[in-house]
Specification:
23% helix; five-stranded mixed beta sheet; D-Maltodextrin-Binding Protein, domain 2; alpha+beta; Dipeptide-binding Protein, domain 3; 3 domains; single chain; globular; 571 residues; four-stranded antiparallel beta sheet; 19 strands
Length: 571
């Protein structure tokens, strides 16, 4: 489990000149949802969709992608056993069948999952897709030379921990995956996992025909199981051209209206937003899956009604927070952690994050979406501007009547989640409570190395976490399950929590195949953990992205928070 990088927010510089396109004065942003002007227009097949992205579409190999890396582009080529429901908002947080006839059939304790493929599925060359191809696709994702994908399969599949992939395998593949016939595939897990249908949405479940596997060169021309095939991949994903797969069928989710998709990456964020705002030539039929509008850009765009109508708003399961290491003084004292929780001024933090249009205050670690099991609570109420008096009272009880001095570690990256602006806002708020905060800003790589190593983790730092699928499991377990503490690698359990009751409850919830029941339990567990004050939730991000004037049928689900290019039309 890891923090998603491709979907991370990109806030462009305030100096971006959208005024030429917008001709607008600054004012409050107009909050458009997914059902904007584009959504009401009748979609038609044909035309070319252009995707303008900052991140290059590298590693275009289903084994190497982390979830649906690179926005939605891979999902146009790679189909999996299950997929996300392609609908707006909360409805889009559901898992639905894709290559399979259903979302999976578990045994009594959810340790065995069986899937049946739909009839008549074919690759781009007309050959049939088989269960053996899915098994092989999963197996090759274990090859060291194809690393980069999510780690769940290695953890969940029986006997898979030390598997090194089919290129070195002499024993016939993973015994935990059975294919009794061409349409049936069975997975044997080493523990109950009620959320296996979510895992089956990840690109490692893409079928790969063994005869067409070219190892590390496969990304140049992966064999398509989706509505489009790769006809060109230039400069390691800088430009990827997709055209229709004539043998695509049995897909109830992807609309695939355009005839072609032209993905152009490696662009500056400001240039992307300028081009989308101007919406000229091919850019009329353009979208972005990784570039947000920043505060200054939103102010300019919102002053022009025609531009404001072309802003899609999305929410992704993501939380920005303060993390404490209770092994470092004075944060070993719960009252000190509670004092900081009370002292936080979320209003100033929201302003530092770009304003209320781009960030929503958080008092829960779980995102405020039903699929995660969101249960409202605020155990250390700071109000909008912080409760300095309560913080001082707790500090006095902790033996610091004259306050104390601490160091806050953050990244110097332009991405605002851990930015100097956020750190400064916290520094100012805590000063009111008698807490002097010294700031330690690090370059992004140094920051990540420091906070994710038990040996170097600071006592007080900024962090963030995003879910690999919309559930409380991949949100709470990596951060609070004591068995996921990594001593000699990247560790995300920043509070080093190893609470038997928490671990036991995580196991109990994982056994549930009723996802609504599981969600309620995740919400209750979130509240229980919050009482230990190991983190201070600050805000959940909001995504604001422009799209071209000829783009229709805008769908933005709570699963990804970004425009779903499998749904858009350009005619």
């Amino acid at each position: 489990m890891r923090q998603p990088s491709v979907i991370a927010r990109r806030v462009a510089a305030a100096s971006v000149s959208l005024a030429v396109a917008a001709g607008a004065a600054a004012c409050g942003p107009e909050d458009n949802d997914a059902k904007g002007a584009g959504a009401d227009s009748t979609p038609h097949k044909g035309g070319t969709l252009t995707v303008l992205n900052a991140e290059a579409q590298t590693d275009f190999d289903p084994a190497r992608l982390y979830t649906s890396g690179g926005g939605n582009v891979p999902s146009l080529v790679f189909r999996t056993l299950t997929t996300r429901n392609r609908e707006n908002g909360a409805a889009g947080a559901k898992v639905v069948p894709d290559l399979a006839t259903d979302t999976g059939r578990p045994n009594k304790d959810a340790t065995v999952w069986t899937y049946t493929l739909k009839d008549g599925l074919k690759y781009e060359d007309g050959t049939p897709i088989t269960s053996a191809d899915i098994k092989y696709g999963i197996e090759r994702s274990f090859a060291p030379e194809l690393s980069g994908g999510a780690p769940y399969l290695r953890d969940w599949l029986s006997g898979a921990a030390d598997y090194q992939g089919p290129y070195k395998d002499k024993k016939g593949g993973l015994k935990a995956i059975e294919t009794p016939d061409a349409r049936t595939i069975v997975f044997h897990l080493n523990k109950p996992e009620g959320e296996f249908p979510f895992l089956a949405t990840q690109t490692q479940f893409t079928p790969v025909p063994k005869a067409k596997d070219t190892g590390t060169k496969y990304e140049q021309h992966p064999v398509s199981s989706g509505p489009y095939k790769v006809v060109s991949n230039q400069n390691d994903g800088e430009r990827v051209l997709l055209e229709r797969n004539p043998h695509w069928s049995g897909d109830d989710e992807r609309k695939a209206y355009p005839d072609k998709v032209d993905v152009r990456s490696g662009l500056d964020s400001s240039v992307i937003n300028q081009r989308l705002a101007a919406s000229q030539g091919a850019d009329k039929a353009a979208v972005t899956t990784d570039t947000n509008l920043g505060p200054a850009e939103l102010a300019r765009v919102s002053g022009d009604k025609s531009l404001a109508a072309r802003v899609g708003t999305g929410h992704f399961g993501y939380t920005n927070y303060i993390a404490f290491n209770p092994k470092v003084k004075p944060f070993d004292d719960p009252k000190v952690r509670q004092a900081i929780s009370y002292a936080v001024d979320r209003s100033s933090v929201i302003n530092a994050a770009g304003g209320s249009a781009l960030a929503e205050p958080a008092t829960t670690f779980l995102p405020d979406q039903k699929s995660f099991g969101y249960t409202p609570h605020d155990l250390f109420p700071a109000g909008k501007s912080g409760n300095a008096a309560k913080a001082k009272e707790l500090l006095k009880e902790a033996g610091h009547p004259n306050g104390l001095t601490v160091t806050l570690t953050h990244s110097n990256s332009k991405d605002f989640e851990t930015s100097p602006e956020i750190a400064t806002a916290l520094q100012d708020a805590l000063k009111k409570a008698g807490i002097t905060v010294k700031l330690q800003g690090l370059e992004d790589n140094d920051y990540r190395d420091k906070i994710h190593s038990i040996k170097t983790e600071p006592g007080f730092f900024l962090a963030h976490w995003g879910a690999d699928w919309p559930s409380g499991g991949p949100f709470l377990a990596p951060i609070f399950d004591g068995r996921q503490i990594v001593k000699d690698g990247a560790n995300f359990n920043t509070g080093l929590l190893d609470d038997k009751s928490v671990n036991t409850e995580i196991d109990a919830i994982n056994k549930l195949t009723d996802l609504n029941a599981a969600a309620a339990r995740w919400g209750a567990l979130d509240k229980k953990i919050a009482g230990q004050a190991l983190v201070v939730p600050l805000f959940h991000p909001v995504y604001k992205r422009l799209y071209g004037s000829d783009v229709k049928n805008i769908v933005i689900s709570d699963w990804t928070g970004v425009l779903d290019i499998s749904q858009v039309a350009v005619k």
